Backbone:
């Protein structure tokens, strides 16, 4: 429908259309003529131009029209705007809504003439003053008090003087005494061709009251409609309160309404406006009524207030309905409906009362034809329903920004609350509204694909119909000369050339999709393979997930995510670029290149750990296809020829790639999401490789990754038996740990049976000896702790306590890698009694002589061996070892780490001071010599875990963990003892003293940083991050200085690694890494 009000607000002259003479041979180029729709012609046209008469209108669109004259010339005329001021536009809309159609048309036409009278209105305040005077003339009442110098807006700045004059100069001349005298001279007027009966003074200035008298219509036609006009303008006033863009114009609008309320004898309305502007508007009526008025039936004696009505909705105390006039206060209606939906208020009383009027014009441009919101009736959540109302109303982020803060903040909080987990069936407009451009882009892509599929279906159906027609023709067996017609061309003729192009593109896309499906080997990530760069296609071989595609949606203009993926890529040979020395032979240079490749390969072998964390639970594999494992390539490429080399000419450790390949498989298994459907035993077995020892190691890691995500709980007992019976060490470890992790804390008997077969203490003494690898026994101990997590099972605690101090058996039994076995037993005991140390502290069976905590303390500090108690396999270890002679003392180098961590986990967050004091560092230099420096790291960590609530994110807390007596000797070069007054008699050599103090200091600080990182992991605490980061930089700087020799570079490197892991636990670092999105 055509909009009554023009949308362009520029006064443009009527000029000939460029190039029109070439289109119309009969037309001739006339000089430019300036015309405007106005009572007075601004410029006097040339006499030759005035001789042409307008015969037709052509190409009328928007606010311009092309005029055709009788001589063939064409002119384009721009219709002046109805108003520049948004405030005046809103008032005119109100008048249209409340007045009869003919009268409202007459009012708008009169205002149009008034608005475009001679004299420019270079500000909106002047236009508002002119509208107020115009309204005064229509109503027939004096309301001049509503005008002020500023019109409710900020005072205009004084314009700079112009050299070529301005319209104000003309107005000054028109108001001068000379003009008044000459306007009465009949001879002068006759010379100018002006009539002597009219006075131009009444049409010169819009800032005087004279224009009101010149525009008055006989009988003041709006006088009888004053109550309706007033009520409509009041609704406009209340609606303007919901738009901060009208905050300056509200005062002038309130002043006008206050004067009208005084005329109508409405003191309640006058008080309402005074409360909005108490220092600007009068408190009482300022006019005396001269007549009585007839109020319309919808008029309310109490002034409608949108803010008071919103408060009533929130307080669930709605007593009356809010008046709504179509096309006038649409914003008020939308906000009231949103708040009613958000508050989930009962509709005992209708929220809105629609005023029945007959507007003269209906225009979607000005009335915002969004009066009804359509939402899903099945939605019961008030928050989701409110957002769906906002979408149906067409509300956007700029709309919310234009609302007053008190109104917009609850709606913005609503959007932010739903932003994390929005419904999956929303439109892209809803995702844009809540601030999820990633989901909006994905939704637009899905809609585009849906439309393309519908178009293809329609084309194919049409093509099928044509093909059927062709078959019918063949059945008739009549040769009509159309046998060689291409049916694709007929489809093109029926649907246009764009259809042929789309068919070709469709076929091309289909072929590309098939090629991508083959190249990705069933990854199901066609969207990632389509349209990617060559670099991204190379990364897809490593990832097999949506990381690149989703990341591009989240950070469309940021390439750091792609750079991170490039750094974690391990499937391509690395670049080996070193310069050859002149005296170096080719063989030596080749060995140098391979040594350089070996140094780079150490970094490459660590990439699977980062890739596993980065892609954790991001893939839902296709169950009909195996999940590919990224290749771990340890080869190099020499530029510029691109020759590939390996490490065949240098000595490397045996089984160099053994554990890296295992971790590579774990990274692949961790990619599988925990909620991935149809992950069953048959699919797990289906991924089993056919041959190859390296592939078997990777597949073992893949099984462990599945178990860590809980998928090995679906592995059948028969398949588990098939894996274990083959005796592959890494596969056995993966099955034991994966099954236990899938049943963590469940005390599952089937898992216990599998674990018991791989632990000597759980095998009956009469059974035959089993050759169980040491690493498998360690994995079984950890699995035992996972299966009985937080159960405080006494039998398992008794068993693991004995395994911590398990002596070396006869011959070669339990003589190698005893430290890892004891540490695993301690960790398993800590997991079983996690946070339940008080329950296990006093456990003493009939054959025990000491409690659990006493035995752990004994294992930690050492002393004479104690008998823990009998057991199923205790008789096996009665004999002494032929390889290791320990004597009667506890070997704390073996038992101390496991016992320390077991105590820390058992008394986690308990605040037990007695146990915590056991972990305190020695108080004297003499006692410090009996403790290994690396044990101090574990003791500091365990003590902090016990005193959980006392951990503070300040540097002073870390300093308090260090004994005071060692601080003067930390990282300080020792002086000659002969030149000092220190008595070193009976003490260690002074250089050893300084080394031990420095090592103790570094380990205590690293342990405190680890405890601080665990305490504030994921909290985003800035203070904890700064403290750990400070000490991380301290260790990094020490490595570059010669002072590092005092503590040993290996010690500082270990402490730096621990501190970096602690730093990675902080959520603030995670946010910094993720700032590539939210």
Residues:
């Amino acid at each position: 429908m055509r909009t009554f009000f023009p949308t362009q607000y520029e006064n443009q002259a009527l000029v000939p259309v460029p190039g029109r003479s070439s289109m119309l041979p009969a037309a001739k180029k006339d000089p430019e003529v300036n015309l405007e729709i106005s009572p007075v012609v601004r410029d006097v046209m040339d006499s030759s131009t005035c001789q042409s008469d307008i015969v037709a209108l052509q190409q009328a669109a928007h606010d311009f029209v092309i005029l055709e004259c009788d001589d063939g010339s064409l002119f384009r005329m721009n219709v002046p705007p109805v108003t520049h001021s948004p405030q005046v536009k809103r008032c005119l809309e109100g008048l249209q809504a409340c007045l009869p159609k003919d009268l409202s048309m007459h009012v708008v036409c009169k205002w149009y003439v008034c608005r475009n009278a001679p004299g420019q209105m270079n500000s909106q305040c002047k236009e508002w003053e002119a509208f107020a005077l115009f309204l005064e003339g229509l109503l027939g009442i004096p309301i001049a008090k509503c005008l002020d110098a500023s019109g409710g807006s900020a005072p205009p700045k004084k314009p700079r003087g112009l050299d070529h004059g301005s319209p104000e100069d003309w107005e000054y001349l028109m108001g001068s005494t000379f003009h008044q005298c000459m306007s009465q001279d009949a001879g002068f007027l006759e010379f100018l061709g002006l009539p002597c009966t009219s006075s131009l003074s009444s049409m010169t200035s819009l800032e005087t009251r004279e224009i009101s008298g010149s525009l008055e219509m006989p009988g003041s036609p709006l006088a009888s409609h004053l109550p309706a006009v007033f009520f409509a303008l009041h609704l406009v006033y209340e609606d303007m309160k919901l738009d901060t863009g009208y905050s300056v114009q509200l005062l002038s609008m309130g002043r006008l309404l206050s004067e009208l309320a005084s005329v109508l004898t409405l003191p309640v309305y006058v008080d309402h406006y005074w409360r909005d502007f108490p220092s600007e508007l009068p408190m009482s009526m300022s006019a005396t009524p001269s007549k009585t008025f007839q109020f319309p039936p919808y008029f309310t004696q109490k002034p409608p207030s949108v803010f008071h009505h919103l408060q009533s909705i929130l307080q669930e105390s709605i007593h009356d309905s809010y008046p709504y006039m179509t096309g006038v206060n649409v914003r008020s209606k939308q906000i009231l409906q949103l708040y009613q939906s958000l508050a989930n208020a009962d509709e005992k009383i209708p929220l809105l009362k629609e005023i029945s009027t007959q507007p003269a014009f209906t225009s979607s441009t000005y009335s915002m034809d969004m009066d009804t919101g359509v939402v899903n009736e099945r939605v019961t959540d008030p928050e989701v329903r409110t957002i769906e109302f906002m979408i149906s109303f067409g509300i956007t982020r700029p709309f919310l920004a234009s609302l007053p803060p008190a109104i917009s903040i609850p709606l913005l909080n609503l959007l932010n609350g739903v932003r994390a987990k929005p419904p999956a069936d929303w439109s892209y407009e809803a995702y844009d509204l809540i601030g999820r451009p990633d989901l909006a882009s994905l939704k637009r892509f899905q809609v585009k694909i849906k439309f393309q599929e519908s178009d293809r279906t329609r084309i194919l159906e049409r093509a099928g119909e044509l093909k059927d027609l062709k078959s019918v023709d063949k059945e008739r067996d009549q040769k009509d000369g159309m046998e060689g017609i291409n049916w694709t061309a007929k489809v093109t003729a029926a649907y246009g050339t764009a259809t042929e192009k789309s068919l070709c593109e469709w076929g091309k896309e289909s072929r590309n999709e098939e090629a991508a499906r083959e190249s990705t080997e069933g990854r199901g990530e066609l969207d990632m393979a389509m349209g990617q760069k060559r670099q991204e296609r190379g990364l897809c071989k490593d990832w097999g997930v949506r990381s690149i595609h989703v990341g591009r949606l989240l950070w469309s203009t940021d390439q750091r995510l792609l750079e991170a993926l490039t750094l974690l890529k391990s499937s391509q040979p690395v670049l080996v670029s070193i310069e050859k020395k002149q005296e170096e032979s080719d063989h030596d240079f080749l060995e140098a290149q391979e040594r350089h490749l070996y140094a780079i390969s150490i970094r490459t072998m660590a990439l699977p750990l980062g890739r596993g964390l980065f892609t954790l639970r991001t893939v839902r594999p296709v169950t009909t296809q195996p999940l590919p494992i990224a290749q771990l390539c340890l080869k190099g490429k020499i530029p510029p020829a691109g020759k590939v080399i390996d490490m065949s000419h240098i000595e490397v450790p045996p089984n160099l790639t053994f554990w890296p390949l295992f971790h590579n498989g774990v990274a692949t298994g961790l990619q599988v999401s925990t909620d991935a459907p149809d992950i069953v035993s048959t699919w797990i077995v289906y991924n089993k490789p056919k041959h190859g020892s390296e592939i078997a190691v990777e597949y073992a890691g893949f099984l462990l990754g599945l178990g860590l995500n809980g998928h090995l709980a679906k592995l059948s007992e028969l398949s588990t038996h098939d894996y274990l019976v083959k005796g592959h060490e890494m596969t056995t470890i993966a099955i034991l740990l994966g099954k236990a992790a899938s049943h963590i804390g469940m005390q599952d008997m089937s898992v216990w049976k599998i674990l018991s077969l791989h632990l000597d203490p759980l095998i009956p003494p009469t059974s035959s000896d089993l050759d169980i690898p040491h690493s498998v026994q360690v994995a079984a101990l950890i699995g035992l702790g996972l299966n009985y997590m937080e159960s405080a099972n006494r039998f398992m605690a008794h068993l693991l306590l004995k395994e911590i101090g398990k002596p070396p058996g006869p011959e070669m039994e339990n003589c190698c890698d005893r430290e890892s076995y004891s540490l695993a037993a301690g960790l398993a005991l800590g997991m079983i009694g996690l946070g339940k140390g008080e329950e296990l502290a006093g456990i003493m069976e009939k054959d025990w002589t000491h409690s659990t905590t006493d035995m752990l303390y004994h294992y930690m500090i050492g002393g004479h061996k104690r008998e823990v108690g009998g057991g199923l396999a205790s008789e096996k270890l009665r004999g002494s070892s032929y390889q290791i002679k320990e004597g009667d003392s506890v070997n704390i180098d073996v038992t101390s780490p496991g016992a320390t961590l077991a105590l820390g986990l058992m008394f986690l967050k308990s605040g037990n001071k007695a146990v915590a004091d056991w972990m305190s560092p020695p108080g004297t230099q003499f006692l410090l010599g009996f403790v290994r420096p690396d044990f101090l790291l574990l003791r500091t960590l365990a003590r902090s875990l016990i005193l959980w609530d006392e951990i503070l994110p300040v540097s002073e807390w870390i300093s308090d963990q260090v004994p005071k007596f060692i601080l003067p000797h930390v990282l300080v070069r020792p002086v000659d003892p002969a030149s000092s007054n220190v008595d070193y008699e009976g003490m260690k050599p002074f250089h050893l003293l300084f080394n031990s103090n420095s090592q103790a200091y570094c380990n205590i600080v690293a342990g405190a940083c680890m405890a601080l990182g665990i305490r504030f992991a994921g909290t985003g605490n800035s203070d904890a991050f700064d403290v750990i980061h400070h000490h991380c930089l301290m260790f990094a700087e020490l490595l570059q200085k010669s002072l590092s020799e005092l503590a040993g570079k290996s010690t500082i490197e270990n402490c730096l690694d621990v501190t970096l892991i602690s730093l990675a636990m902080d959520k603030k670092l995670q946010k910094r890494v993720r700032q590539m999105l939210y």
The two ends are 42 Å apart (CA to CA). The chain has a mean pLDDT of 75. The first strand starts at residue 54 and ends at 61. DSSP finds 48 helices and eight strands in the chain.
